[in-house]
Amino acid sequence: MRLISYNLRNHSAVSDLESIVAIHDPDALCIQEAHTALLPRSIADLRLVQATAQNRLGLAMYLRPERFRTRDLRVVALRKSLHDRLMKPAHERLIAVRAFDAKYEQEVVLASFHAAPLTALNSLRRHQITTAFSEMHDLGEGLPALMAGDYNYPFFQRSLADRLRTQGYTLSKSDRSTYSRYRVLRGHYDFATSKGFEVEDVRTLPQSKSDHLPILVQASLAPVAAKAEPVLVGPAAQPIPMV
After folding, report:
1. Largest alpha-carbon pair distance within the chain?
2. Where are the alpha helices (DSSP H) in the chain?
3. 242 pLDDT exceeds 60?
4. CA-CA to 158 of 20 to 30 Å: which in 121, 123, 221, 242?
């Protein structure tokens, strides 16, 4: 699976999406800081599955319909930071999708995530990440899960990785830094966290119109997850049309 995550910096890099998809041919695309009403319904072979509706700066997810059949999805508001309360950029900071992956004949959970900015405490961002994991668990208990996005966590990453490991998730960061606007704040901000996936590579893609650089995550199902039978239960077994 090839998944790209990109923070568009207040929608300014939306014109980058078509070329990024054409060059790197992802199966999934996670977007942060978009004006979602202005996003295209499709980008090449990818289709818009879900987008936030209440945020000033929103999230979205695109999937390849030939590979993924959407079973269930949710948009989640996470605990607000002071910045969120004053500036109101976002409170819906997670999009999670449960989808049947035709390649592996297995249901998976994929998510686009955007943590609170650096003006908030790391403890708040950790709470948001943990809540995101809980929502993904509720959406597809026991399913392989992969969440990518802007974690806004450039410092104390080893401690974060250790903490997430106790929750069963692996933190994967890219080969180069993903933020470059301010020299003093440069570093890794955009990550992937996974359970039941083996993340083989996370690569920082060239910078264009955003202060964030997109990341390309290449992952496959872990051997145990790959042997699991497809999970098709209840009403969610019916595909959900693309947006």
Report:
1. 51
2. 17-24, 82-87, 122-139, 157-166, 223-226
3. no
4. 221
Which residues are CB-contacts of 233 (< 8 A; sequence separation ≥ 6)? none
Tens-place pLDDT, residues 94-137: 999 999 999 999 999 999 999 988 888 899 999 999 999 999 99
Q: Which of 161, 227, 229, 226 is nearest to 194 (CA)?
A: 161
221's enclosing H/E stretch is strand 215-221
> Each residue of 141-187: pLDDT tens digit?
999 999 999 999 988 999 999 999 999 999 999 999 998 776 656 78
H-helix or E-strand spanning residue 206: none
Q: Quick one: angle between helices 122-139 and 157-166, nearest 10?
A: 30
Helix residue spans in 73-232 (DSSP H) = 82-87, 122-139, 157-166, 223-226
Backbone torsion region of residue 178, taken as left when φ is above 0, otherwise alpha when ψ lies between -120 and 50, otherwise beta: alpha
What domains appear along the chain, each with residue ranges and CATH number? 2-237 (3.60.10.10)
**Which carries the bigger pLDDT value, residue 105 or residue 80?**
105
How many other CB atoms are found less than 10 A from the CB of residue 18?
12
